[in-house]
Amino acid sequence: MDTLNKIWQFKDLRYKILVVAGLLVATRIIAHIPLPGVNLEQLKYFFDQNQIFGLLNMFSGGTMSSFSIALMGVGPYITSSIVFQLLTMIVPRLEEMQKEGESGTRKINQYTRILTVPLAIIQGYSMLYLLRSQGIIPAWTISSLIIMLISITAGTLVLMWIGEIITEKGIGNGVSLIISIGILAGLPSQIRNTASIISLGDTNKIISLIIFLLIAIAIVGIIVLITEGQRNIPVSYARRSRGIHSYSSLNTYLPVRVNTAGVIPIIFAMSLMVIPGVIARFFENAQSQWLAHAAQVTGNLFKNNLFYGALYFLLVVAFTYFYTAVVFKPEQIAENLQKQGGFVPGIRPGSETVSYLGNIITRITLTSAIFLGVIAVLPFIMQAVTNINTLVIGGTGILIVVSVVIETMNQLQAQLTMHTYDNY
Fold first, then answer.
1. Taking Cα atoms as reference points, which of 422, 378, 420 lies closest to residue 399?
2. Which pLDDT tens digit goes with each residue over 6-42?
3. Given 5, 116, 209, 351, which residue has the most CB atoms within 10 angstroms?
4. Pick from 362, 376, 395: which is nearest to 222 by CA?
5. Which pTM value belongs to this model?
């Protein structure tokens, strides 16, 4: 409460918090403006019965299950951001642009926004086609399809715009906060459904609920521990002389986060896991008998929780190593240290430093990969252990929410520290 009072005392901080709160309320209003012509009960059942589409619904902030005008949420914008993040590692021109500083970052952000438009159209059409194939929405005319696609694309762009305003004018990352508030918005209904278990007085269910809550608290603690965890690699800088001045050697450290990849590997794995099931649904009614049979077998295989969970886990582990290799480059770090006159004590600059950093990141990534893999399949584990379907721990959702809360708290603390220095 003392911290909250301090925050409220400063006019600019108070303004930023009110801006964030107001814009987040606006996103929830948008999320509840539905497109016409859909059976909402059947739509909700579809997402409840499909884990992977339920995860997509979570990332959209619940806009899919309500068939909102922002059907795809900020998903296309996130996809576009990931695409350009990977392209900057591959395309030399984009890599040079990123090194230009603020002007280069502005150009890349503009390209990201432009790519969001076609991605929103493509993803929106794919989702509409899938829902129509399931009989959830009726057949459309060309004009009604165009109107729906324009509405879906406009909804995504509005959410993207709101997210950027929050980032610029408020506190925290706007897109992350929009996703987080969407995840938390589904919590009251889960609690309400779970309360009916207690009212029935089923002792076994109540014991399972207590176990569920204890595990949930432990998982939040583990997520905080892994998210904040880092390995500090000692770095020394040699004694320097400038003119008549001599500077003693400096000892510092290079922080390497345990979870360098963040939640990106889960998003990659989720995207791949969607493809076989969607393709199978498209070809279930194919005229070719072998094609229809193959589609049916594939669909049934991906409905098997054991197979689905095992494949999902392996994909997350593989993508964790892949994305960590993209983000953390030992050669580049070793080169920068050498240019600045820094070295790891006991390790020679150059190839030995590269090998040393590579071995460390490989060992750390193993912990991160297993952690993210378990987080991804956590809903399957929890339902098997507790046999409770009304309250679901989405490990990915908790990971996102906890990470966003920690990031926002750190930014608030930095703002408070800056104001404290200004007062002195």
1. 378
2. 777 778 888 888 888 899 899 888 888 887 767 667 7
3. 116
4. 395
5. 0.76
